[in-house]
Amino acid sequence: MEITRFRIFVVALLFVFLFGCAPFVAKPTPLSFEKPEQCREFLNRLDEVVEDAGVKDASNVPIRGFPYLRTNRFIASLKKNLRDDGQKGEWSRWMQQLDLQSREKELSNLSDQAIASLTGEYPAIPALQGGVKGYNIKETPCRKALPFRAESFTFADRRKADRDWLYAQAKSCSSIVMSHDQGRSDFYDTLSSIVNIPEEYSCFRRTIGLYPLVAIPVAVLTGRSLNKARKTFEADLKDLPVDGQLRPFVPQSQVSLSGKEVQEIIEDSRKNHLGVPMPNKDQEENLAWVFAPVFFQDMAAPYDRLGRVVWKDDGVDIDSERPTVYYYTSHAFLKGEPILQINYVIWYPERAGKRAPSIEKGHLDGLTARVSLDREGKVFMVDMVSDCGCYHFFSPEKEKVERVRSRPLSFDPFVPEWLPAISSGERLGIRINSGWHQVQRLMSVGEISEPIPYSLMRYGVLEALPRENGRTESIFSSKGIAKGSERPERYILFSMGIPSVGSTRQRGHHAIELIGKDYFDNPYLFDENFVFR
User: Fold this and answer.
1) Burial code of 494-530, b = ≥16 C-beta within 10 A, e = fewer?
2) Which alpha helices (H) appear in 183-210, and where do they start and end?
């Protein structure tokens, strides 16, 4: 009898495990959503060509059945809070804009042959003429109108004109199909039911890898790693090891905004139906310069010099002669209210040296520092993560936190130090060790001697990075993995369910837990781990 009960318990436990890690499966779209045929065909065909060419932009997630919309975790989380038509309209337009941004990169990254095939299949669509606000397709050089024999018209001009024309077609089709769909009474209910984000964790990998068993030794090793990191943060700054020479990388532009000016930008950018801070490009760039940190890098070898991402010999490389930090904005919730985040991403040629574990060593390495602003535009949290999704930790403002939440069956939030007080005229300083590129300390810094200036570039450049031949290519695969950054640990930690674990990853693809599941872009990450005052 006892054996029978035990068998029932084991079967039930296995069922719960498999159900809990079941991958997201998109629901079929009702047949009532019939789109204008020409535009539906064009957008679907464009998706097919992009997919076949392997140039799909993985920064945002397409919504099945709605080829003009893409989403991310924050936008998907908003669906349960939509109360009126204004919010619903703003929500869908945001997803439409994400799709157009991705399509522009995908068209740029397509080969000339793929572009030629598309322009050959789709001459100017009559229904699209003049269909885009601010973009008159009649004035766009379509394929038949190109002056092939004009001496001043080069092959590169033709190539760019074809891409511009296809993007204009996509933009117009997006507006036409979306307008058509929004006329349906069940549009938002149907859309809301299928706006979800697929998991980065593979149920199949965890199942065949015997995750419940393998997770035990992984948890032990993770606990040791966290304790070791905590001791590093608790040590005196002067006692931290230096393998080479500490060099400060500082933002080359000293944009200055007062606290009041920052607050005004945040408040002004929230004036939309969703109440989400959405600064324009100029405001976004100014904020990025204002909060840009100083990176104190222990430089013992060439692999320690952060630089600009470039193509070299058909591979991704780092130009260490041009220090560069890439930035992008994101959103999360603080006590249920949407807030703005500025992400700063640095890149190294490789992870190497005597400190890095051998299974983690390899080509390309990166680190993301995320600065989160409250409603008043004040920094209340800085959290850091290696670009493999590893070694994530929080550094909140102590006065903002009532308590750190405990997480059953998982590790508690790792808070190795509270956010240092940063006075006017000072910046956030981030000290990083050699080779392994682990953060050792956050600090407040003022005047700096012998600074190395770095430039700021938008992260989107990496998703359509120019080559020497004039073409562009994303440094990431269509799965969101940085090309050429694979690590040996993907075989050793296979059971954790993260595909190509250890590889550097694209934004939106940072799984940050080996035990359990969580994501760097989880919009509830702060509220789930802290009780704020």
Assistant:
1) bbbbbbbbbbbbbbbbbbbbbbebbbbbbbebbbebb
2) 187-194, 203-208
C-alpha closest to that of 512 among 526, 522, 523: 522
Burial class (CB in 10 A: 0-12, 13-18, 19+), 61: buried
Q: For the chain, how long is the longest CA-to-CA vector?
A: 90
Inter-CA distances, 255 with 285, 286, 376, 425, Å = 10, 7, 19, 11
- pLDDT at position 409: 77
Instruction: State mean pLDDT over 282-300.
Output: 97
Placement of tokens 């993995």 in the chain: 481
CA angle 384, 390, 391 (to 5 degrees): 55
* Least confident window among 8-12, 38-42, 324-328: 8-12
- Give, for 286, the enclosing helix (H) or strand (E): helix 281-291
pTM of the predicted protein model: 0.89
More confident residue, 268 or 25: 268
The pLDDT of residue 50 is 97
Q: Write out pLDDT tens, residues 94-115.
A: 999 999 999 999 999 999 999 9
Cα–Cα distances (Å) from 355 to 101, 235, 349, 364, 389, in that order, read 40, 17, 16, 16, 19
338/354 Cα distance (integer angstroms): 42
Distance in angstroms (rounded) separating the CA atoms of residues 20 and 208: 15
Q: Tell me which DSSP letter residue 24 carries.
A: P
Q: In this structure, what are the phi and psi dihedrals at residue 452, rounded to the nearest 5 degrees?
A: -110, 110
CA distance 254 to 250: 9
Q: Is the four-CA dihedral 288, 289, 290, 296 of positive or negative sign?
A: positive
Q: How confident is the model at residue 136 (pLDDT cuts 50, 70, 90)?
A: very low
